[in-house]
Amino acid sequence: MQHTTGDISPEKAVLIGVALPSHQRWMVEDNLMELRFLAATSGVEVVDQVVQERSHINPAYFIGKGKVEELSQLLKMYDAATVIFDDDLTPAQIRNLERATSAKIIDRSTLILDIFAQHARTRAAKTQVELAQLQHLLPRLTRQWTHLSRQVGGIGTKGPGETQLETDRRLIRKRIEALRSELERIDRQRDTRRKGRKREFRVSLIGYTNVGKSTLMNLLSGADVLVEDQLFATLDSTIRRVQLDADHHILLSDTVGFIRKLPHNLVESFKSTLDEVLDADLLLHVVDISHPVFEEQIKTVLEVLRELGASEKPILTVFNKIDLLKEKELIGSMRRQFPDSVFVSATRQIRTGKLKEALVKYVERNFVTQSIEIPIALSGLLNTIHSQAVVEHQEFLDETIQIRYRTTPAIREKITRLIKKASKDHEQLLANRSAS
Ligand SMILES: Nc1nc2c(ncn2[C@@H]2O[C@H](COP(=O)(O)OP(=O)(O)OP(=O)(O)O)[C@@H](O)[C@H]2O)c(=O)[nH]1
Ligand SMILES: [Mg+2]
Fold first, then answer.
1. Predicted TM-score (pTM) above 0.90
2. pLDDT tens per residue across span 95-111
3. Among 39-48, 80-89, 120-129, 293-302, which stretch is predicted with the lowest mean pLDDT?
């Protein structure tokens, strides 16, 4: 898509939504509002929108033939050359609509993919987006796709008797293969890094796009993750250590937001970015309670989690942006529906202390209690134990120290190992002394 830079005027587009008998009109209108936000994020100017009520989808044009006529007139009137549909179209529908209107026809998935492509910064994100784009494009390739063939064209790229379209398809498949193996390589590197983080309690921020996940990340961790009033400002995972209070800390990750009808290819290729979600001990589901359809957004997020295979994870729901809330009664009714949830404003820092307290409780649930008795000679280990665990009791006896502490199973293991090693070293020292 063309973007606004300098004095080039933005691409103009008309939005189209279809209301079938099973859809409620307000929902279609609301979906179009979101589509408008998507278009704006992608740098397109929306000049008008059309909603058609139909009893069924027209297989040839998606909308009715009469509406296609009306659409052509609208495009002429606004001097616009792009049409964006809220639904995904079949390759034949795209071809027919392009012929009938001479405009560029874009569906919701293509638009989302376009935004992802614009926002991708790292090598991993760029590779994932390009893979998803090509997989979406391949079955929809209707015209000559001269871009790629020009890029890699030349000797050996054109088989005898092949049409341009076939060549393009073949090139795309080849590129898909190359991107897949590149992703596998990136994944292997990530796995190595991930192994080092096993010991900590891990929390993943998840939620619909633009709800304030990155704002919360920055607030809790002092990180500097990009925050924007845009859809999909964040594409890559960021991980930070967050100290909740003197005794508890977590590893917090921020990642890509979800949206209604997230293209399947995209979920597929972002699976490794979303591995943080699968590895988490707790999901922090951020909801924008000031959004008119936040309850729909909650449902969408839970659906995507199911698709990822993460629906069994414990979830702490955080209702954000309470500063924008006009009807405060909503808080009461949501609290009844989600008894363990917290209500905050990340930007105004309202009740964010409550969020930390709730997180401490989750970390504690994972804690185990351990009672030990160590020789006084090993008192040097006390500092380490105090810094890694919550010490509940400590008593110096004649020759030993009794300690009871709480911590994660992994840190308990680490402390046990340290004590074993220190005892061994100590015994060795005693043996050497008595020998000399
Ligand atoms: N009024 C208000 N605005 C907020 C609050 N929290 C976040 N915002 C705004 O909401 C917008 C989106 O915030 P982000 O933190 O980028 O949201 P995100 O969930 O990370 O979004 P993506 O990464 O795009 O999915 C920004 O303009 C924030 O300033 C809040 O508590 N109150
Ligand atoms: Mg973000």
1. no
2. 899 999 999 999 998 89
3. 120-129
**Pairwise CA distance, residues 18 & 303, whole Å:** 23
Atom from ligand 1 closest to the CA of residue 218: 15
Ligand 1 closest atom vs CA 217: 15
Task: Looking at the CA of 206, name the nearest ligand.
Answer: 1
Nearest alpha-carbon partner for 287 in 315, 313, 265: 315
Distance CA 21, CA 18 (A): 10
pLDDT tens-digit readout, 401-429: 999 999 988 889 999 999 999 999 988 98
Closest CA to 296 of 19, 16, 28, 21: 28
Q: What contacts 190, CB < 8 A, 6 or more positions away?
A: 124, 272, 275
Closest CA to 131 of 72, 88, 180: 180
Give the chain's mean pLDDT: 87
